[in-house]
């Protein structure tokens, strides 16, 4: 099935020495890439390596600061996503954007419906064309069904059908398998292979290395914005690929200190929220970092929210430091010494238009309020203290947090919660979307906290982070904890097997 | 690894289109439900008072609904795009007075109606521009224009009043006449309703209104001219409010600076009772029209049953809450049904 790499045809789409900076961050540094017709090409790299920027450059969202995008060998300048689409480049994001109220057929042909006389939509032709696309993709989806309620996998199929409907020659798939089950992945790969055989180019991004080896012919690796290698997958091992992606001592990025776990600080027993998660039990000890892994949508965030009291649970118990928590009451959870750093820092973790000082001060209002009034002096000194401890980079402490970079915003959220002096800290995706340098700082901080006796529960979709930082790994799959793996046995293989519901060997 | 099969992976599939049928049925039911409630209410009233469905009775029922149906049709277009137009009452009032002034000065009826529509178009354009360019929530923008238009109306009209005596006889006759029990005005409203429904279903720009109400971000990505569509929806809404103003004049013959005051809330109620989702992207103008018919009929039903009309407002409120509750429950059940099927599938 895998064709030998053949140097004959010219690349359909190519990047030549492309660079792109955002402020001081150099997201891409002289990257080149060639995509040949009929090939499934993998793009590998750690989070923050520049994969997203590269995709967005190809998709016309970003314009390169230097270098060229070549289409059929000719330099092109995309002024927006529309230009790239017209050139036959389609991007399928991890979370598709559909119209939930409209039918699948309408979703695919919106704005481009076949017309009858007087510009009226030809509903029959639209339906037929959609049915034909579904047959071509080998899936059984009713064109008249509304998009609401479709699984992520089916939504992706609709996006792929949309791309095919305007004869896309290049299909870019950004972590399409992150939220899929095993059988859904198999179906998607069937579709991808078919597209390749029909001459389309697929640029495939995945953090699951085995998928790259399973479906791709060549792989391009990026690291810290720079091009590392473009080579055939044949003959490579996963270790080779990881070495190219990481390229540095893992200890540096994951400065985990060895600790001896103390008493149980957080104890969750048989926690259930109907339809969301079931029978979840675990313990976190003082000084321990416990990783909670799993696919997007496995229920990890929901468990954290329930433990903290943001959502109610239907059954089970939660103890923090021996104190039983009240169902659905964040204030008692906070009083017991629990802190939650939420997944979405912009929407849930911060008040974006408020100053750094006040954001950090929010959790301390209990102690800084005197006679009903906030003691601004106390608030400021407390905030400054934590901002300095966490090395937040800011101009003035009175600046709005929205002016800070993503990594520094994350530090402010951490400061806000660390200022409460928690016994148990739950962090949900603590390093998502922040640069490598800050990431290492956050890791060092978490490690230091654990060494100081704080119990840390770390939810992360970043497998190397889980493997690098956690003393123990809990894995969730479809609302249940399916595995508990000690640090010594935790590998990408064992964790992913449990996360995707494939029984561990 | 486990996958070696080429081509299409075997889809261990869902029984085809059962999801479609279920959801379809629910949404068709939504309009059907209002129709049933309406018919039951009429039947009960007729049973209690055999005079109710006389020729004049039917005519009154239809005449009362006409103006609300027109404005609700326009409002639906805006609500479908996930916006709202609260200025329709003010627009109706000012265009009714403008049409009346034109006729009072000896103007032609067609010119007067055209003037009212044009004035409505102007108000709609103003709203549409502010909402689409200003990136300000429609609720706030149109609350502002509600007061602005009402204010201009008050300054212009002052304490003046237009009565049926000021209007040409033919115009007043047109307002109360019709084809036996069916008033001319109702026929106009029906024509507008049918045309709008046809447009929404069969024209690309009509479907795009649903698309951008359903997911504005996806609409932008799909290359839909979002601002242009929103502007168009507001313009048509304003035009229909203007037309409704002219018909109001023909029907009642009596216009002053307070005409149409508070009407926007009745209109929004009719739209919501009719199942047009306030979150955009779903519902139909037929539903909104039925909602309008239901709300205005209560006005006639209660007196016919010997109930004091002071109950009307409270009953309208209950209907509104009921409609929203039904929508919410239906949405939850559909979601649960789809989820269950997915679970079975997996």
UniProtKB/TrEMBL annotation, chain A:
UniProt-listed InterPro entries: AAA+_ATPase (IPR003593), ABC_carbohydrate_import_ATPase (IPR050107), ABC_transporter-like_ATP-bd (IPR003439), ABC_transporter-like_CS (IPR017871), P-loop_NTPase (IPR027417)
Record's GO cellular component terms: plasma membrane
SUPFAM superfamilies documented for this protein: P-loop containing nucleoside triphosphate hydrolases
Topology term for the membrane: Peripheral membrane protein
GO MF entry, a single one: ATP hydrolysis activity
Superkingdom per UniProt: Bacteria
SMART domains, alphabetized: AAA
Subcellular location, principal: membrane
Alphabetical keyword list: ATP-binding, Cell membrane, Membrane, Nucleotide-binding, Repeat, Sugar transport, Translocase, Transport
Pfam families: ABC_tran
Location of the protein in the cell: Cell membrane
Residue ranges annotated for the ABC transporter domain, each copy included: 13-249, 259-503
CDD domains in the record: ABC_Carb_Monos_I, ABC_Carb_Monos_II
UniProt name for this protein: D-xylose ABC transporter ATP-binding protein
Naturally occurring in which organism (per UniProt): Streptomyces diastatochromogenes
UniProtKB/TrEMBL annotation, chain B:
GO cellular component, one term: plasma membrane
Subcellular location per the Swiss-Prot or TrEMBL entry: Cell membrane
Cross-referenced InterPro entries: ABC_transp_permease (IPR001851)
GO molecular function: transmembrane transporter activity
Top-level taxon of origin: Bacteria
Transmembrane spans: 32-49, 61-80, 92-121, 128-149, 181-200, 230-250, 262-278, 285-305, 311-336
Topology with respect to the bilayer: Multi-pass membrane protein
Sorted UniProt keywords: Cell inner membrane, Cell membrane, Membrane, Transmembrane, Transmembrane helix, Transport
Main location: membrane
Function text: Part of the ABC transporter complex LsrABCD involved in autoinducer 2 (AI-2) import. Probably responsible for the translocation of the substrate across the membrane.
Subunit structure: The complex is composed of two ATP-binding proteins (LsrA), two transmembrane proteins (LsrC and LsrD) and a solute-binding protein (LsrB).
Name this polypeptide is given: Autoinducer 2 import system permease protein LsrC
